[in-house]
Amino acid sequence: MRRTELPSKLCPVCGRPFLWRRRWKRCWGDVRYCSERCRRSARTRQAKGQGHPERP
């Protein structure tokens, strides 16, 4: 298969397109992020955005 024919997705964190990889063959539907760095970054963004209410 040629590189231009591979499926691609957009990373929700950095907004860059990334291509299908052989190691994602069985779980391509579950892949959301282009890299481990973006996956970790997404988790920290969620944690910062939730914030805990202050206790009296």
TrEMBL record:
This is DUF2256 domain-containing protein. The lineage of its organism: Bacteria, Pseudomonadati, Pseudomonadota, Gammaproteobacteria, Pseudomonadales. InterPro entries: UCP037205 (IPR017136).
